[in-house]
Amino acid sequence: MSETSGTTFGGRRAIPPNNSNAAENDPPTVELQGPVPRGVNLQDYLNVTNVHLFKEKWDTNKLDHHTDKYDSNKLIVRRGQSFYIQIDFNRPYDPRRDIFRVEYVIGRYPQENKGTYIPVPVVSELQSGKWGAKVVMRERTSVRLSIQSSPECIVGKFRMYVAVWTPYGVIRTSRNPETDTYILFNPWCEEDAVYLDDAKEREEYVLNDIGVIFYGDISDIKSRSWSYGQFEDGILDACLYVMDRAKMDLSGRGNPIKVSRVGSAMVNARDDEGVLVGSWDNVYAYGVPPSAWTGSVDILLEYHSSENPVRYGQCWVFAGVFNTFLRCLGIPARVVTNYFSAHDNNANLQTDIFLEEDGNVNSKLTKDSIWNYHCWNEAWMTRPDLPVGFGGWQVVDSTPQENSDGMYRCGPASVQALKHGHICFQFDAPFVFAEVNSDVVYITAKKDGTHVVETVDATHIGQLIVTKQVGGDGIKDITDTYKFQEGQEEERLALETALMYGAKKPLNTEDVTKLKSDVDMDFEVENAVLGKDFKLTITFRNQSPTRYTISAYLSGNIIFYTGVSHVEFKNETFKVTLEPLSVKKEEVLIRAGEYMGQLLEQASLHFFVTARVNETKVVLAKQKSTVLTIPKVIIKPPCVLCDSLTRPGHQEAASAVCPHSPSGGGGTGHRQVDFSAAFKKS
């Protein structure tokens, strides 16, 4: 097959970028080596009359390759694994004098050395890891081939041709969309970079098209069902379009590291006209609120058809769509939720909270934030670019948070490397490490411009990291895959290792962490029901024989789930006197009228308490969030048989089990309807 002639620049031959799967440049149907003698008809030689791909859902190709769920009438196979095709000729095939081969082409400027033009020779035996075609059956004018693809093959939609050699040149079949073949990553193939050896995990992380995404508060974990829909009609083409839109070179599309990194950039539209526009300000004009989405299919199809970003998404929507993208292409993937997830804005591997001298948070200096929860993805792959042992689950995050190499993207970052603090390995490991394992450092900004580290909370960030159970909808705790148990020597060693590799030197907190105060402070928030008052109880403990006085400050804020404050609804200062070896509790009443008018979608109440021990100048600080409990609304219609709710003297029966209800032995009667779910988006 002849290559497209390039343009010469400064003595170099330049081939135009080959970065679109959809773009085509059909090869010639006849390639002559010279003039054809008079009287010779090339059609008298071996000619192809038809090609059969065995591409129905029940055919062995799709069943063996686990692609029978795709709603597509095209052949879809996984790389590194053989599949069958049948070629019909105009006469019986004679291997002693007939030469032909199958060709796969992708993109507009195919080149053999780039893997975008693949000539598949007919061989006597297939070799693992190499392209080849073996004749497995000859019957009359038909030949059935077993075609072996390379486990490193480009992933995408290939055009297929059959080329026949004659003494005067090559005769090639013309372009036929019916023979287009999709080739995907193959988690079932040991030689593929995404090979996953556990059958149940392959079923979950590749073939399951329905999932559960966890959100909410660590003390009140909620879940939402999500339809990934990776096998739905048009989704595979939409995922390939995402890479086309990124102008990703086709030669790199066989590398799951590159594919997942491009995907993390393209699922958000922050800087590249990607799939989803993010919005966290509770304003969703001209779009769909993030909480209204229940799956990825509508989002990806709309993006593909309109060629414009879809509005709007937040972290779980980005993660859900990205999961569809990865699973559709054959990369094992899952959605992960991190509770109390840090956003390290200045790359110093710690979460810095700046305080005024009176204990209030200095919002001008405080750029880091702590999300109630944050969702990202893990993708399974080998990492030949890293030292041995750092393959497996990789963090990839498509929520636009920080710029990485000029684009809003994150990962892939090795989970195993993160656990041990080896953040020197690409990609974006320092940022992800801070999300799960950074210390919260409270710093007082003095009026003279100096900064004083007051206290360090080493346990607040990354308290729980979860994903969906394999084969079920329950919670699987995977915190120990990201970090050692808090307080263990290994956990501190991992942090010290990360700080050693960190690009920016953090504030010195060593002396602060070694200093143990005689006074301890903590607080608890009473179960808060929407529309009702509740109490916040602050407990001070004096463990010394010395009497202390304390100046304390409480701030209550409505915050987005990203940890960004919307409005402060409560602030209060108070004095506390602590007698030697004593415990004292202070109660603060939070009235419903103080917060009700400020509530937002997905918002929670965040409380921040700082206290200064006047005698020692030691500052204590704690912060906690609480999610309002939605009251249940139960409607009990009257029973048409006993009319127990309306007859005088039957008030008690209204709360009792109706004798005609299913639970009371009958088939009809009172039915309780729980409307609390309707208020969850309020």
From TrEMBL:
Keyword DNA damage (UniProt): no
SUPFAM superfamilies tied to this protein: Cysteine proteinases, E set domains, Transglutaminase, two C-terminal domains
Pfam families: Transglut_C, Transglut_core, Transglut_N
Protein name: Coagulation factor XIII A chain
Originating organism: Equus asinus
Membrane spanning residue stretches: none
Cofactor: Ca(2+)
Gene3D superfamilies documented for this protein: Immunoglobulins, Transglutaminase-like
Entry's cofactor comment: Binds 1 Ca(2+) ion per subunit.
